[in-house]
Amino acid sequence: MSELTIKDLYVSIEDKQIIKGLNLTIRQGEVHAIMGPNGTGKSTLAYTIMGHPSYEITEGDILIDGQSILGMKPDERSRAGLFLAFQYPVSISGVTVANFLRTAINARRRHAEPPQEDISILEFRKLLKSKMDLLEMDYAFGGRYLNEGFSGGEKKRTEVLQMAVLEPAFAIMDETDSGLDIDAIRIVSEGVNAIKGPKMGVMVITHYQRILNYIQPDFVHIMYNGKIVESGSRDLALQLEENGYDWVREKYGEPELVN
Ligand code: ADP
Ligand code: MG
C-alpha cells in the first residue's frame, strides 16, 4: 500500500510565503477533504505536489513511500501515480479529448517497467466509452478540442474523465465542485466513488461541504493561513457548513499579510 506524505512543508511564490509548515499523510484507499477559506493556499498545495515550477519549496519534503519526489518533473510525478484535476482547466486547441487521453495513456505505458506497447485504438475506444458512461458524458466529447468552448461543468467533468482513465494512485481534486450544479456534482462524485476503490487515495479540496455528501471523506482537514489547523471526521465538515469559517478565524487569528 502506497502513501503520500507531506512533511513540514513551506512554500513561497514570488517571495511570498504561502504554505507554512504543512503536514499530511494520505494512504491509498483513503479520502481526505481539505477545506479552507479562499486564499489560504489550497491550490498552492495542489500545484506544489504536482511540481509546478513557480512554487518554491523553502523547507520540508513531499514523499511517496518514503522517497522524496521533489527532484521529479511534473510528468515524472504523473507517472509515479499523482494526478491533479485543476481548479481552472486550460483549453488546448487542435487536440481532441480522445487524443489527449490516448497520448497520456501511451506515455505511461512507454515508461512502464518493463515498457508496454501502445494501447490499440479498439481497446482505447472501449476504455474511453466505459469511463464516459460512468460519468454520464456524451461520446461526442471525445472528438472535441480539449476544454475549448466547454462550460465550467463540462471542463470539470473532463478533468474527472482524465482521472478515471489514468487511475492514479493519488488524485488531487482542486475545487472540482465549483461551477457544477447539484446534479453534476452528484454524477461526478458517483464517478469518483466508482473509480476510487482501495487503490486510489483522494484529496478533495473544497470550500463547501456539499460535495462531501456524495464523496464520503475518511478524514477532514481545515487549512488556514498556510497550514492544517484542525483534522477530524466528517463532522468537522458539517460544523463548517453550519458555522462557516468565522470560528476558525477567531480561534487562529487573521492571516498575517506578508508581502
Ligand atoms: P486557495 O486555493 O486556498 O484559494 P491559493 O493557493 O490559490 O489559495 O492562493 C494562496 C495565496 O497565494 C493567495 O494570496 C494568492 O494570491 C497567492 N498566489 C497564488 N498563486 C499565485 C501566483 N501565481 N502569483 C502570485 N501569488 C499567488
Ligand atoms: Mg484554489
Helix and strand arrangement:
Elements: E1 3-13, E2 16-27, E3 31-35, H1 42-50, E4 56-64, E5 67-68, H2 74-79, E6 82-85, E7 92-96, H3 97-110, H4 121-134, E8 145-146, H5 152-166, E9 170-174, H6 182-196, E10 201-206, E11 219-224, E12 227-232, H7 234-243, H8 246-252
Parallel strand pairs: 3-10, 3-11, 6-9, 9-10
Antiparallel strand pairs: 1-2, 1-4, 4-5, 7-8, 11-12
Helix pairs in contact: 3-5, 5-6
Bound molecules: adenosine-5'-diphosphate (ADP) and magnesium ion (MG).
Magnesium ion binds next to helix 1.
How many individual helices? 8
Major sheet size, sense and barrel closure: 6 strands, mixed
Strand-pairing-aware structural class: alpha/beta
Q: At the first level of CATH, what is the class?
A: Alpha Beta
The CATH architecture would be 3-Layer(aba) Sandwich
Give the names of the bound compounds: adenosine-5'-diphosphate, magnesium ion
Number of domains: 1
Ends distance? 41 Å
- Looking at this structure, what is the CATH superfamily? P-loop containing nucleotide triphosphate hydrolases
Q: Radius of gyration, rounded? A: 18 Å
Mean pLDDT: 93
**Low-confidence sequence ranges:** none
In what range is the share of β-strand residues? 25-35%
